[in-house]
Write a structure and sequence with these properties.
Blueprint: H1 2-34, E1 49-53, H2 55-58, H3 69-76, E2 80-84, H4 90-95, H5 97-101, E3 107-111, H6 114-118, H7 123-139, E4 143-147, H8 153-163, E5 166-168, H9 190-207
Parallel strand pairs: 1-2, 1-3, 3-4, 4-5
Helix pairs in contact: 3-9
């Protein structure tokens, strides 16, 4: 009888311990998801959001030409402007950056680096140009988010750390390897862009305070 009682007490302690662990894990997840982003220029009181970059930013491959931007607008309930140019490298994008800065955007989402990788631009050169783009946007008062794509994985994470920018890693993960989500070997179709939008939206929501 004592052994049965002891076994029940042990089970009770196990249940309490498990409940405590679950409570702590839930609390940790809540804290992580609700803490203020540690990014430069956060928070912002500016309204505009701009997507700046290459063909992924332009939406090449989507049926309506908007790519992930139109769906992302609905997910975060904000208007988003596109400044994407197909084929742009970081060097070429740097040359037209003034047009973005002149708009005084609150948040700039950057999608660059894919063409640098395809064209064999050395990693250090790509990173130098990316450094300049981020620094100039931040000096203009914008929050910056960078979108990683295959090719320069560690460069993106390093840029995010060095500049205190928001970062969404490899937006093409699970997309570029799935023919059902691609319009051609490089560009997603509507379904692929939808996955990208849903990947970006949670991080973008954290930056929106207005």
């Amino acid at each position: 009888m004592k052994q049965i009682q002891l076994t029940l007490e042990q089970k009770d302690r196990s249940v309490i311990a498990l409940s405590l662990i679950i409570f702590l894990l839930v609390g940790l997840v809540f804290f992580i998801n609700n803490r203020e982003p540690d990014v430069m220029n956060y928070p912002t009181n500016r309204d505009s959001i701009i997507v700046f970059g290459d063909s992924l930013a332009e939406g090449i491959g989507s049926s309506d030409g908007t790519g992930f931007v139109s769906e992302l607008e609905g997910l975060v309930n904000r208007d988003i402007e596109q400044y994407g140019v197909s084929g742009d490298t970081t060097e070429r994008a740097l040359q037209r950056l003034d047009k973005v800065i002149d708009q005084k955007p609150g948040i700039v989402i950057i999608s660059l680096g894919g063409n640098d990788f395809i064209q064999g631009v050395p990693k250090d050169e790509m990173r130098q140009d990316y450094n300049k783009i981020i620094s100039r946007l931040q000096n203009g008062g914008s929050i910056v988010m960078i979108l990683g794509v295959p090719g320069y994985t560690y460069s993106y994470s390093g840029l995010a750390r060095d500049h205190k920018v928001s970062y969404v890693s490899n937006i093409l993960r699970g997309v570029i390897t799935n023919p059902d989500l691609m319009s051609d070997p490089i560009h997603p179709n509507d379904a692929g862009y939808s996955k990208i939008a849903n990947r970006i939206a949670p991080e973008l929501r954290r930056l929106i305070t207005y």
